[in-house]
Design goal:
CATH superfamily: Alpha/Beta hydrolase fold, catalytic domain
Distance between the termini: 8 Å
Largest sheet: 6 strands, parallel
CATH topology: Rossmann fold
Radius of gyration: 16 Å
Helix content: 25-40%
Oligomer: single chain
CATH architecture: 3-Layer(aba) Sandwich
Structural class: alpha/beta
Strand content: 15-25%
Number of domains: 1
Number of helices: 10
CATH class: Alpha Beta
Length: 231
């Protein structure tokens, strides 16, 4: 496998869309790496896996699959044989039979974490002030305002559906632990990374390092690409 053969597909989490990966994509493309963001509808776990699979169908060749937050569960549910390694960016990684909510609420929430409740349509929105306090507290105010304005709500079935056997049990994985994460406890991230036997990089970053620390995100993706090439 040659270095330029390995593509990167990035999946966004809740309250985000593909634009949250823009800084990462631009850096990867500057290195000659084909990278795309997979648009997830966030309407159900099944819908999101199907949407990811459609994005993977567009790609020729092997893939490093990257997931942020909720999308950690989604990237582990594909059965595409194009996926050669997985990268978790402050992500959730439920084991077989667990739900996203099970691992999200494993530890006590951070004092700055928002209280989350579905609306009358079964959709969970992130309060605007949570983008400042918890989602991307290290971002500029302009970036926080854009994230809040463009947020995509997540439906309850996304987080309440038990997952099957995750792909990280058969493919190598990398995990960026966000030590300053106010959404997913860092201790929960370390627990998940440990049972995955992932290669771990731990940094003092917030929940959305794709926006606030994109170079660190790119570095771990490049590590995973090198692993895929060597395999």
């Amino acid at each position: 496998m040659q270095a330029n053969d390995v593509n990167v597909v990035l999946a966004h989490g809740a309250w985000a869309d593909g634009s949250s990966w823009s800084k990462v994509i631009s850096r990867l493309k500057a290195r000659g790496i084909n990278a795309i963001a997979a648009p997830l509808p966030l309407t159900s776990f099944t819908d999101d896996v199907a949407a990811l699979d459609r994005s993977l169908e567009r790609i020729d060749g092997p893939v490093v699959l990257v997931g942020h937050a909720y999308a950690g569960a989604v990237i582990a549910a594909t059965d595409s044989d194009k996926v050669k390694s997985l990268v978790y960016i402050a992500a959730l990684a439920p084991d077989e039979g667990e739900t996203v909510a099970d691992v999200f609420y494993r530890a006590e929430p951070h004092p700055q974490a928002p209280k989350l409740e579905p609306d009358a349509n079964g959709l969970v929105w992130l309060p605007e002030d949570a983008f400042v306090a918890a989602f991307a507290q290290n971002a500029s105010r302009k970036e926080q305002d854009l994230l809040a304005a463009g947020q995509r709500p997540i439906a309850v079935p996304c987080i309440s559906t038990p997952v099957g056997r995750p792909l990280w049990k058969s493919q190598p994985s990398w995990f960026l632990v966000a030590e300053q994460d106010h959404m997913i406890a860092a201790e929960t991230q370390r627990f998940m990374a440990g049972r995955m036997k992932a290669q771990v990089r731990s940094y003092p970053v917030d929940h959305t390092p794709s926006v606030t620390a994109p170079d660190l995100v790119v570095d771990i993706i490049l590590d995973a690409r090198r692993g895929a090439i060597a395999a």
